[in-house]
Specification:
Blueprint (H helix, E strand, L loop, with lengths): L9 H4 L17 H7 L1 E5 L4 E3 L7 E7 L1 E7 L5 E8 L3 E2 L1 H6 L6 E4 L3 E7 H10 L1 H26 L3 H16 L14 H8 L3 H13 L3 E4 L2 E4 L2 H10 L4
Helix pairs in contact: 4-5, 6-7, 6-9, 7-8
Length: 240
């Protein structure tokens, strides 16, 4: 699937990518090259920002909104691999490795995202050692987090992993105005994929958590009723 972007649209006029993420502390010798070539677009919920398997177009900076990264798994099913939000950057690993995108990026809500074209980003790295070092450190940190998550999840029961994922969703998305409803709407299948279990198993543990008044459910809405108990389940759950 090809990707298309429009330059200097109304949304993009308010976007100053150099003031965000990895560029806020970096002294760019020729910032106009970036400002004149950046591409900014608004995305509606569910729109694809870039597609798994496509050639990398550039570095993406999230100015507003939240994004999910998904990867095709067994039988072609989409699996959420991570989340990103305002201030995060996307696509840098493929740009540096020269590989096609290993995942797809999809808007989780209304987003404004700016892209620095590939050639301009590579030029930045070649001319600015401080930026290159910062990106390298971020890549190393990503690898460390991925390894820790794999190790951590591998030693947890499904019950523990389910509670852990709810805490991760809370940490990343926060709450709605009521202070107990998670500020995210995900299908049970998506949450099950993050947990690493079958949807039926997730529903079983959700029902258990609901029965014990740890959470309450209303469609896709999840409310955390007892966070202390949820933490206990994440760290001390016993597989049934």
């Amino acid at each position: 699937m090809s990707q298309s972007y429009s330059k200097s649209n109304k949304t993009g006029d308010d976007c100053n990518v150099l003031d965000h993420t990895y560029f806020d502390e970096i002294d760019i010798s020729n910032p106009e090259v970036i400002r004149e070539n950046k591409v900014c677009n608004a995305y509606k919920k569910g729109q694809t920002i870039f597609q798994e398997g496509n050639r990398p177009m550039g570095l993406f900076s999230i100015e507003k909104g939240k994004v999910i990264l998904t990867k095709r798994g067994i039988e072609g099913r989409e699996q959420i691999t991570r989340f990103a939000k305002e201030g995060d950057i996307l696509g840098y690993r493929s740009l540096i490795s020269g590989d096609n995108y290993a995942a797809s990026a999809v808007a989780l809500d209304e987003c404004v995202i700016c892209m620095i074209p590939k050639d301009n980003f590579i030029q930045l790295l070649e001319q600015n050692g401080k930026l290159a070092l910062k990106i390298m450190r971020h890549l190393a940190k990503d690898l460390e987090v991925a390894e820790l998550n794999l190790t951590d999840m591998a030693h947890r029961s499904v019950r523990e992993r389910t509670a852990k994922v709810l805490l991760l969703l809370e940490e990343f998305f926060g709450y709605k105005e009521d202070g107990i409803s998670l500020n995210v709407s995900l299908k049970r299948e998506d949450i099950a994929n993050i947990v690493g279990t079958a949807t039926e198993s997730l529903i079983r543990y959700f029902s258990e958590f609901k029965k014990n008044e740890v959470i309450s459910l209303n469609g896709k809405e999840i409310r955390i009723l007892n966070r202390t108990k949820l933490e206990e389940l994440a760290n001390n759950g016993v597989e049934s």
